[in-house]
């Protein structure tokens, strides 16, 4: 099969995966099942799609492949250098988050912020705290899990709108997750596009910082007439927050991500031992717990890598790129650089609209995005940034996304109420479109 071969049928396995994963979640949600979208784990939902892709490898390819050859191709995709690198980083990121949480680092970061926020600017302040924690932790879900309960406690003792507060927490989490050096979406987008972490970070700031400042300015106008009685959890030693800030500085300086994460784990354990009651003997158990927390995304990344390779081999990704280009050529007379930016953005936006998992969306569409970038001479940092940003926008606005569901459960409101208040993602969409229109040339 040549690299120019195309087949829309090759995308059907991806459609089957989306149908099973999303369809099951929507049905169970309608039946009132709690955490409906977690009842059928994504690594299980993808198995029928893999079987279909293996079958298609026998009937779609010009050269017929037997089962053994097809499985070899699947394993080749799973063992792709980028996929394996992502998986190793997932493990280290999970280990760091676990150790830092057990040592009290998360509570220290949150309480440090709460201690300096004037009561009139609680929504704005918690948006900033959520953004900082997510940037440090590299996970929007972990951030929402850490900050949302505290934010809900604030809502209970003020007259603040819980939906507004929930939207601020999710928005801040998406901001930090999108920028963090240890976020799985950052790792996936940079590895698939061949970009450097620090270059992608700087590029992302062009889109994310103006959006965050606009939203922050809006939140500042919201104040509470009720004075909270107690805004913090149990006192946490602020020294425990230092490992988070160390890894941000080291990552910005361009230190290898593996070294950054390993240093984060070591520093968190040492600070916890020195200034808290953390037992060094527990560090091995906590690291393994962090590995376990990354099990689903680890397995899914491997399997999606295999599925992607089969779809690429069968011409599915070429088909997708070709049709996005064709659609854009009908609505735009601008140059290739301009059109392909929108094509890459569309890949991230549309794929994640269906999957509701921004990391998976980036992995699935990464090869196509890279091809579009190379075709128009778009810098890897720009294509990585666009892919991450637009999947992030979708993730913050889909009511069946994990972030919206977790925030809704914490605040006792509906996911629709949550996503309708995630103003950061809405503003980020508008700002990103404007940036792409203005910056049409390198």
Automatic annotation (TrEMBL):
Family indicated by similarity: Belongs to the NhaC Na(+)/H(+) (TC 2.A.35) antiporter family.
Q: Does the keyword ATP-binding apply?
A: no
**Know the name of this protein?**
Na+/H+ antiporter NhaC family protein
TM spans (from-to): 9-28, 40-61, 82-100, 112-134, 205-222, 242-275, 287-307, 342-364, 385-409, 421-438
Query: PANTHER family from the entry?
Result: MALATE-2H(+)/NA(+)-LACTATE ANTIPORTER, NA+_H+ ANTIPORTER
Q: Which InterPro entries match?
A: Na/H_Antiport_NhaC-like_C (IPR018461), NhaC_Na-H+_Antiporter (IPR052180)
Which keywords appear in this protein's UniProt record, sorted alphabetically?
Antiport, Cell membrane, Membrane, Transmembrane, Transmembrane helix, Transport
- What does the record say about its membrane topology? Multi-pass membrane protein
GO molecular function per UniProt: antiporter activity
Q: Specify the domain of life of the species encoding this protein.
A: Bacteria
Please tell me where this protein is predominantly located: membrane
Name where it's found: Cell membrane
Domain Na+/H+ antiporter NhaC-like C-terminal, first and last residues per copy: 49-221, 244-435
- Gene Ontology CC terms, in alphabetical order: plasma membrane
Task: Write one Pfam family the protein is assigned to.
Answer: Na_H_antiporter
């Amino acid at each position: 099969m040549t690299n120019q071969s195309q087949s829309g049928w090759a995308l059907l396995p991806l459609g089957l995966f989306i149908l099973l994963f999303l369809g099951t979640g929507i049905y169970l949600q309608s039946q009132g099942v709690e955490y409906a979208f977690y009842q059928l784990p994504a690594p299980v939902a993808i198995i029928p799609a893999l079987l279909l892709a293996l079958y298609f490898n026998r009937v779609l390819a010009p050269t017929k492949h037997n089962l053994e050859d097809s499985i070899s191709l699947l394993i080749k995709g799973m063992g792709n250098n980028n996929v394996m690198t992502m998986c190793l980083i997932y493990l280290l990121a999970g280990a760091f988050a676990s150790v830092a949480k057990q040592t009290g680092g998360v509570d220290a970061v949150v309480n440090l912020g709460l201690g300096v926020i004037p009561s009139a600017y609680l929504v704005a302040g918690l948006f900033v705290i959520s953004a900082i924690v997510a940037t440090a932790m590299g996970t929007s879900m972990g951030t929402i899990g850490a900050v949302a309960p505290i934010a809900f406690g604030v809502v209970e003792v003020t007259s603040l709108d819980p939906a507004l507060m929930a939207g601020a927490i999710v928005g801040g989490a998406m901001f930090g997750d999108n920028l963090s050096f240890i976020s799985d979406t950052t790792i996936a987008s940079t590895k698939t596009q061949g970009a450097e972490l620090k270059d992608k970070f700087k590029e992302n700031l062009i889109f994310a910082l103006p959006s965050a400042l606009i939203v922050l300015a809006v939140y500042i106008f919201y104040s509470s007439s009720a004075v909270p009685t107690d805004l913090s959890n149990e006192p946490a030693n602020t020294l425990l927050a230092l490992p988070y800030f160390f890894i941000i500085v080291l990552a910005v300086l361009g230190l290898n991500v593996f070294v950054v994460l390993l240093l984060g784990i070591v520093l968190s354990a040492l600070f916890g031992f020195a200034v808290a009651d953390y037992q060094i003997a527990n560090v091995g158990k906590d690291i393994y717990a962090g590995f376990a927390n990354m099990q689903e995304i680890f397995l899914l990344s491997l399997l999606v890598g295999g599925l992607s390779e089969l779809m690429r081999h069968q011409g599915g990704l070429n088909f997708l790129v070709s049709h996005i280009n064709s659609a854009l050529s009908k609505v735009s007379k601008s140059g290739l650089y301009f059109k392909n930016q929108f094509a890459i953005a569309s890949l991230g936006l549309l794929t994640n609209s269906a999957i509701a998992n921004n990391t998976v969306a980036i992995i699935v569409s990464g090869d196509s995005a890279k091809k579009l970038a190379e075709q128009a001479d778009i810098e890897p940092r720009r294509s990585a940034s666009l892919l991450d940003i637009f999947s992030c926008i979708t993730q913050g606005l889909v009511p069946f996304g994990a972030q919206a569901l977790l925030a809704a459960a914490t605040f006792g409101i509906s996911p629709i109420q949550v996503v309708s208040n995630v103003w950061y993602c809405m503003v980020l969409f508008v700002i990103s479109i404007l940036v792409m229109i203005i910056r049409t040339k390198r």
